[in-house]
Amino acid sequence: MKLNNKVLLALLGVLAAIFLYTQYSGNKEGTFKKDLFATDTAKITSITIYPNKTPGKQLTLNRQDDGWKMTNDSITNTAVEPSSIKSMLSTIAQLSVKRLAAAGKDKWAEYEIDDNATRVVAKQGSKTVLDIYIGKFNVGQPQNAGSADENFNPNQMQRPTLTTYIRLHNDDKVYAVDGMVGAPFSKQPPTFQPKVFEDTQILTPDTIIRQPISTE
Fold first, then answer.
1. CB 129 within 8 A of CB 93
2. SS3 for 134?
């Protein structure tokens, strides 16, 4: 009986060690869910942006029958440029964790990810489906396949790696994700409005004023 208890305790110790390792180790890809931020963007009905540069000036975008509309403290139910909302939804859809950058608040300042960072909240009706803080953005050295790859071209310009650090609301962990996540959410409200082009006159032979040609 004593032997069985020792075996049981040993197994519990191993399981506890595995749990702690998967929760706090950031060196292995298998220690987190790459789809941690997975969200069905087709079902998102509202997006609220709490900008870091203007605290208290949140902007809410709502999906309506005739398109997306935005509201803040100075505008109400104003139309949103389709390309702007498309960019936001595309960014949300492509969120994929590369690695766990930090496990605690002690690294928040380094990654500029404290409670003053830009916050994005997406909802499906009254249900929150995504609530993240967007922090620091880094441009890294290009990652190429190397000369061992038969398709490698040393003369071809390689793309740099783009990394943004984000975290979930009410979670201390900081994650590194691909891309410039903050870009679509950092614009000022006027830039979200549909572009208006002034009418331009189309020149035709009848609208061109013919000038006499001098023979002097």
1. no
2. strand
Helix (H/G/I), strand (E/B), else coil: 36: coil
State whether the Cα torsion 184-189-195-197 is positive or negative.
Answer: negative
Tell me whether residue 57 is exposed, middle or buried, using C-beta atoms within 10 angstroms of its C-beta: 0 to 12, 13 to 18, 19 or more: middle
Place of tokens 């519990």: 12
Q: For residue 60, what are the CA distances in angstroms to 47, 50, 141?
A: 6, 9, 36
What DSSP designation does 41 have?
A: G
Give the integer Cα–Cα distance in Å for 116 and 3. Answer: 54
**What pLDDT tens digit does each residue of the chain (216 aa) get?**
455 666 666 666 666 666 555 554 444 444 556 778 888 999 999 999 998 866 668 999 999 999 999 999 888 999 999 999 999 999 999 998 999 999 999 999 999 999 889 999 999 999 999 999 999 999 987 765 454 555 656 555 667 889 999 999 999 999 999 999 999 998 888 888 887 655 555 555 555 445 455 454
> The pTM is what?
0.70
Dihedral sign computed on CA atoms, order 205, 210, 215, 216? negative
**Domain limits of the chain?**
1-31, 33-144+156-192
Q: Residue 177 in contact with residue 98, Cβ under 8 Å? A: yes
User: Is the separation of the CB atoms in 34 and 178 below 8 Å?
Assistant: no
